[in-house]
């Protein structure tokens, strides 16, 4: 139990720390940050529930006013800004990434993590992020998707980095990935 709590807190802190990496603004309110890499890693390393808990813990701290998002943003205003859908989508993205790595058993932990990161950290997150952008800014959903599409190459790179880091972790500390230790129940083997 204590180990799970410590891992959740550690990954929440890692996501927050990745917000210190300089961000790039594209001018319509949604910056490019390294924090989504942390969200992808949380799901890929911790699995669905703990990964979502890590991202959810960070969002709770942000809601309480701590300036933990890129650019030192925090407080309830984050959840009414153009980035609201992305912020609210982080726990869901980590959950979906983790669920993929838990359920779809690939020979390579890195490949599973990379594909899970694409599904959760890009597909699911973009659906939520673009929806939030459309609602907050009054743009149409197709227009919001076109605006956020510029982030896809960078997020594909982050998904690749997630896969490489998880593969390295599986090699040096195989027991660190509970979902990869050969728990053969419930997974689809490929």
TrEMBL record:
Main location (coarse class): membrane
GO molecular function: biotin transmembrane transporter activity
A GO-annotated cellular component: plasma membrane
InterPro entries noted in UniProt: BioY
Subcellular location: Cell membrane
Membrane-protein topology: Multi-pass membrane protein
Keywords: Cell membrane, Membrane, Transmembrane, Transmembrane helix, Transport
Keyword Transport: yes
Pfam families found in the cross-reference section: BioY (PF02632)
Transmembrane segments: 51-71, 83-101, 113-136
Family: Belongs to the BioY family.
Protein name as annotated: Biotin transporter
Taxon lineage: Bacteria, Pseudomonadati, Pseudomonadota, Alphaproteobacteria, Rhodobacterales
